[in-house]
Amino acid sequence: MKIFKMDFYKLSQKKGFLIFICFILLFTLSSAFAYSNASENEMNSLLQDFTSMKYIWIASTDVLYQGSTLFSLMLLGIILANLYFEDFKTGCYKYIIMTGVNKINFFIGKLLFTTFVVLGFIVISFICVTTIGILFWGTYDLSMREITEAFALYVITIIPITSFIFFLYDIVLIIKNVRIVNFLAVIIPLIIGILDSITGTKKLSPIGLLSIFNEEPPIAGIPNLSGYLIVELIWLFVFVFINYIIQKNTRILSRRIFTVDIFKKYVETQFLLNIKGKNYKARLKPVFYKYFVDTCKEAIFDISAKTLVYLINECRQELIGNSAYDRYDYFNDILVKSQYQAYIMDRFPVLKSKIERAIIDRFSFCVDVQEHLNNDIEELRKKFRVLGECVKLTEMNSDRHQHGKTVLCLEFEQGKIIYKPRSLESDIIWNNLIDYLNKKSKVHLRGIHTLNCQTHGWQEFINATQCENTDEIKQVYKRIGALLNMAYLCGVTDIHMENLIIDRDMPYITDLETLFDYGKSGVTAIDQWILNSVLVTQMLPVLSGSKMVKKGCDMAAITGGAGGIKIKKEVIKNPYTDQMQFVYEEIQYKKVKNIARYKGQYVDPRDYTEEIKEGFSFQYSVVTQNKLEIEKLFRDIIGPSFTSRIIYRDTDKYQQLLLLLKNPRYLASIEKSEALYNMLKADERIPNEIIDSEIANLRRGDIPYFLKDMRFHIFNDGEHIFTCESNDGLYSRLNSFSNEDLKNNFLHNF
Fold it and tell me: How far apart (Å, rounded) are the C-alpha atoms in residues 480 and 228?
């Protein structure tokens, strides 16, 4: 019912739907006038053997359905298909699922809503034409039975009309282009109508039942429609079933928690106010400008959402409207008025600065990516074989660092590539190590094709695909074991489940920015032992109990997501009403890329522990036997200017702090927000220079990002801020490799 009510409310706001209803009335009236003005000869012919059934046929079915059925079908199909498309375009579908409505209920709600709308169309049509027919020609001794029979004939048409609309729904989900759907809504009924008339196969058509209104009416009763009905019901079942299957397999989880569809007017107004007078559009190509607009709107809503929800609850008693939806609309209309927006910004000064900063950073980032693409395009075409123009930019579930920069997927007319706003020298070193070990090892690996441009870099797009047979599954986990050994050797940390992708029999680590991250200190002896073991890579399961991750949840690269994983997210309850509020909901990962699949099913990585151990042990022995050559390789390819990321705190802690800072309490007071930042100073292990940079990064909405070179200089935003205590972590780790160490220190972690 939640879906039903929401869709009905949205439909009532559509001007096109009201126009459609007016069209039915006007067409009915014009058709009736046409009959009333017929010539005497025509009327005499018409009145021969003029039974009451023939009368009701003319006064109802013939007036509307003959000649206008297809046109009405087109309009109704376009209206409902557009409404359906909006759920997926705006993110409303994702939001609805996140609020606790499962996919089956969503599907049932859509089915009920569509059926109700079609039935309403039929009932309105019948009432209109019958009423007008009686007004023009009188009652002609109509019995209730005859009226009921004519109405039943109308109601039967619910089957082909609903079938056609669900066909359009299927097209929406498949091609995700509403313009094409609108075109098909017009052209398909015409094509079917022409084919039916030419071939005489109307009984096999999905809308063939509607053709009965072009036939001669029966003397009495409803014509025999059994043949039509069987075919129509089959078509309806097919289209509805296809829709259910597509919806069921639609991925709903996104990094984004919200949808800008809520408070849309406010978001758009804020965006226009902040770019007014700035030549943003002229400096960006259309595809980059679209990405800029979309991400800015999402950022504005993300920053403002809690404040807006707080305000609507605060002034609920002053809102005008007969329902919660009406009062939400009233509040939403007030939001776009300049005086109220000025009031919001005065009351919440931190909010204003955050919005301004978010827009500036996103524009600068778009300019950078566009410039980098223009400069590198020829090399990209040679190395990655992308063809045509860039047509779409998509964020890759990566945090924002260094003034709003993030990882993007650029989709071209042919091919996709990954853009990373950092040097990819670490990936080049990793690939060189793979090439060397492949010459010595029987566990062959493959690095990700990479183009390093120093300030940024490009990588091939890796698509997660399933294994073809059980041997490939075993091979995958042997290779994962080898990757685990390499990650331990190279001090790679933060390899969680989103940083491992399995493409058939080949695993890939997609984020190597923490290469050579050694020398961390733990709070307890257990923490210190973990930091000095293979567990520090985060590829093996270590349970997390943070607020954002359910206690006991496994986020490890190798096992994370096996059997599903639940994460707590903040979502809006009671959207589009004056009673909306934020609540925590458990969101379940259902599709993951780090677990091997076979025959459409995820395997359990724990069943392949021996394969992981085998790959780890073999690669360990290869490294142990070739220490001197590997050390020489590293010294040859690693220069003193090489930098890699160093992580001082878990990203989760930064994310919790940023989430807390969106609370109206902190957006209203600079002093309170600064006091929250200062809580970071409680950890005495972290130098003050680092903490100051953390606070500066968090103020602008970034996850803090630090780089360390081989001389142990720490950088933030390109500036040297600190020199840490030197340690020879890489070569110490390499020299520690031994058979005894393998046996006593690492294998028991599996």
Answer: 58
Decide: 322 and 569 in contact? Cβ < 8 Å. no
Distance, in Å, from the CA atom of 375 to the CA atom of 289, rounded to the nearest integer, reads 18
The pLDDT tens digits for 429-446 are 999 999 999 999 889 999
SS (H, E, C) 354-413: HHHHHHHHHHHHHHHHHHHHHHHHHHHHHHHCCEEEEEEEEECCCCCECCCECCEEEEEE
Taking a C-beta distance cutoff of 8 angstroms, is the pair 19, 78 a contact?
Answer: no
Tell me how far apart the alpha carbons of residues 167 and 238 are, in angstroms, rounded to a whole number. Answer: 9
| Helix ranges restricted to H, 48-143 | 52-56, 63-89, 92-98, 103-137
Enter the tokens of residue 572.
């809006």
User: Is the torsion defined by CA of 223, 228, 230, 233 positive or negative?
Assistant: negative
pLDDT reading at 252 higher than 60: no
- For 337: left if phi > 0, alpha if psi spans -120 to 50, otherwise beta; the answer is beta
Interatomic CA distance for residues 166 and 247, integer angstroms:
12
Across the range 375-393, mean pLDDT stands at 93
Residue with tokens 């992308």: 386
Residue 538's nearest CA partner among 637, 651, 638, 426 is 651
Residue 470 near residue 509, CB atoms below 8 Å = no
Owner of token pair 């009062």? 327
Strand partners, 459: 418, 450
- Please state, in angstroms and rounded to a whole number, the distance separating the CA atoms of residues 707 and 714: 6
**Secondary structure of residue 56 in the 3-state scheme:** helix
The contacts of residue 289 (CB under 8 Å, 6+ apart) are: 280, 281, 366
| Domain residue ranges of the chain, discontinuous segments joined by + | 2-248, 264-395, 422-560+595-647+734-749, 651-685+688-723
Q: Which residues of 12-33 are buried (b: 16+ CB within 10 A; e: fewer)?
A: eeeeebeebeeebeebbbebbe
% the chain with pLDDT above 70: 72
CB 359 within 8 A of CB 293: no
Furthest CA-CA distance within the chain: 110
Helical packing angle, 226-248 and 158-175, nearest 10°: 30
652-665 residue pLDDT tens: 888 888 888 999 99
Query: The pTM is what?
Result: 0.67
Contact residues for 276 (Cβ-Cβ < 8 A; gap 6+): none
Contact 172, 84 (CB under 8 A): yes
pLDDT tens per residue, range 152-198: 777 777 777 777 777 777 777 777 676 777 777 777 777 776 766 66
**What are the structure tokens assigned to 64, written together?**
């509307």
Higher pLDDT: 587 or 95? It is 587
Q: Residue written as tokens 């021969």?
A: 48
Q: Is 348 helix (H, G, I), strand (E, B) or coil?
A: coil
| Paired residues of 418 in beta bridges | 409, 459
Cβ pair 460, 418 in contact under 8 A: yes
